[in-house]
């Protein structure tokens, strides 16, 4: 039975991915900062909850121990938007920007580093969740977007340096999530698709396993 670690599994895309993998008979370890929310999601979706914050080295070590010597998939989905409402980049509070990079860049890399031996042993897959803000200049998105751009480049380099595994940076598109709502406080985002709609794109990556690279979920949707 294949094994996956999915961070940010309490809600949104992480929860949808974890549930989809469980339905395909994967063993899934899901992480999240709020123990109650994570355990509720785990009970509904069927994954194993490992509560904790990915920015905490101790939590990352516990995740690596729980994953064991072989790991088929790591999904670095846990992320933070940063300041809301989104401020101009020149006015971004430095301490908040540090938090964005610590969560969206340094923690995913640190977790990947810990789990790389297990991923290599299984010839596994590393997925880092990206954003269109990583490649497009949107007003107010400088903090989050620059962090995701850094994550994209880290993903590309990891793919080159570790040819035994597949490394994907995936832009899931705009989804109806709490983080996306925080980017647009007070606005109606009900026109955005639910996170579940992006899941087939990720499953296609796992099934077809193209060379390492950056992908948009919209380009991967299974055609009928």
Written overview of the protein:
By secondary structure, the chain is an alpha/beta fold. It is built from eight helices and seven strands. Helix 1 packs parallel to helix 2, helix 3 (57-67) packs parallel to helix 4 (94-121) and helix 4 (94-121) packs parallel to helix 5 (142-161). The longest helix has 28 residues, at 94-121.
Question: In summary, what is this structure?
Answer:
The protein is α/β, with parallel strands linked by helices. It contains eight helices and seven strands.
Spell out the blueprint of helices and strands.
Layout: E1 3-6, H1 12-23, E2 27-32, H2 35-45, E3 48-51, H3 57-67, E4 73-76, H4 94-121, E5 125-129, H5 142-161, E6 166-171, H6 178-183, H7 199-208, E7 213-216, H8 217-220
Parallel strand pairs: 1-2, 1-4, 2-3, 4-5, 5-6, 6-7
Helix pairs in contact: 1-2, 3-4, 4-5
| CA-CA gap between termini | 28 Å
Integer average pLDDT:
91
Largest sheet: 7 strands, parallel
Strand order of the largest sheet: 3-2-1-4-5-6-7
Summary keywords:
single chain, about 220 residues, alpha/beta, 8 helices, globular
């Amino acid at each position: 039975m294949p094994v996956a670690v999915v961070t940010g599994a309490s809600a949104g895309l992480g929860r949808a991915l974890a549930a989809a993998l469980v339905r395909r008979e994967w063993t899934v370890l899901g992480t999240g900062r709020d123990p109650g929310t994570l355990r509720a999601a785990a009970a509904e979706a069927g994954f194993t909850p490992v509560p904790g914050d990915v920015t905490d080295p101790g939590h990352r070590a516990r995740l690596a121990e729980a994953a064991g010597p072989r790991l088929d998939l790591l999904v670095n989905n846990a992320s933070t938007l940063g300041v809301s409402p989104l401020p101009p980049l020149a006015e971004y509070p430095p301490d908040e920007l540090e938090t964005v990079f610590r969560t969206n860049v340094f923690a995913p890399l640190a977790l990947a580093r810990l789990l790389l031996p297990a991923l290599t042993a299984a010839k596994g897959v590393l997925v880092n969740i990206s954003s269109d803000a990583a490649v497009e200049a949107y007003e107010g998105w400088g903090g989050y977007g620059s962090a995701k751009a850094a994550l994209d480049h880290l993903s590309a380099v990891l793919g080159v340096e570790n040819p035994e595994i597949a490394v994907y940076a995936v832009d899931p598109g705009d989804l109806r999530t709490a983080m996306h709502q925080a980017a647009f406080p007070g606005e109606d985002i009900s026109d955005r698709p639910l996170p579940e709609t992006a899941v087939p794109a990720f499953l296609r990556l796992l099934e077809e396993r193209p060379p390492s690279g950056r992908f948009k979920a919209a380009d991967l949707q299974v055609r009928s």
